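User: Show me a protein chain along with its predicted structure.
Assistant: Here is one chain, sequence first, then structure tokens.
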Amino acid sequence: MANGRNDIWFVNVGDRSTAGAARIVERAVAALHEIAALDHVPGRGRAKPLVAVPVMGIAGGGLNLHRGEVVSQLLAGLSLAATELNLDVVVVTPDASVYAAAQHLRRRSNSWPLAARQLKSAQRIGGLAKDGQLALFLGAGVSIPAGLPTWGGLISQLAEKNGTTTGRLFENLTALDQAQYLHNNVDDLGTQVAEVVRSARVPALGHALLAALGCKEAVTTNYDRLYESAIRMQRGRGNVASVLPWSNPRATKPWILKLHGDVETPRSIVLTRQQFVTFDAMTRPAGALLQTLLMTRHVLFVGASLTDDNVIRLAVEVDVFRKNHGLTGGVGTVLDIDHDEVREQLWRGQLTWQRMRGSDVASRSRTLEIYLDAVAAHASSDSSWLLDQRFRGLHPDDDELVAKARDLFRQVNGAGDEWRGLADALLAFGAASGEYDDETAMRRWTAGLPR
């Protein structure tokens, strides 16, 4: 919430009997009022304090059979309170079906505070992610909210630590030449960079929102593993991303390509002028992989200033190749918090530019989070709540259809191997929802389906 603070508030979800959904939401909102009254200063460059609220009462609170009611009322109550109290509130849950139900409700309300053009863009990008057509390019701006310095800040920090600053003469050098100067005078520069990067251990909200898109491919110039941590937190240890080029990609797992090295391999870190100049000769297959994504996917650029000469060269080569073969239109979308109108003009026709609204970097970064939140909602394709009786009320017009689908599941479940595919399909939509035996429970577990 505030600088260096991670305060915790406790909310009573019931004592001898359940408190009911309305009462629990009332208590959660009361906690938000207490938080707002303390007038916290937002930390890590945020425009507003950030409060995480779990979906309450659906486990030990006695409202497991009323999940739909809890999710619906909680979203409505927290949304009103966040606006009134000038807080940012993020609802968190480890339950896939609860998450999917919440995103269904939010898509239906379509209430993100974005310009109409930007909301339409978020819906489009979310649809590409849902269809498996979106890849990510992550720059340093994604990790700054997690506590990491900017590129210039990193160089200054290293120079100060090693006592190698030479006043104005050093400051007049470009960042790459400053790094080269440090490299020439510091034996273990890569190790020192890794130490700074490891200081940020918790992914930022942006990492979590990007991980929620479910993209199979990502490329980054960052050294940290915060995006990978966000994937592991959301999808479980079985979905750890492969980090290229140090591990082989796996067909069913996401992967991330580190263009400039990785914190776990300090010697691989690209920082200096010489390393950038020799990038193509040393890492040509990595560049080819980025170009493949620019040819075959829509690439979402987040936190990237597009000033890296190697990345620019790779993108320009793709643009020339496409034009020579009669292909038109952009190959990606840039989410810009710097309002760099000149750079936008340079990339016109190649990349779609989405400028985040706001009077300063903090407010524009907040708009970026809202945009990514809308993208994540429209990328969600999980319907494991649809036939689950615990979520009844979220689709009141379809109650009869839900009942028939659940009856069909009972008929085909265990009817024979030839019916197993249909039974498993209905199972994935929540047709059992607590009414299954140990064998069915094991099928859900091994298939990774909501339980």
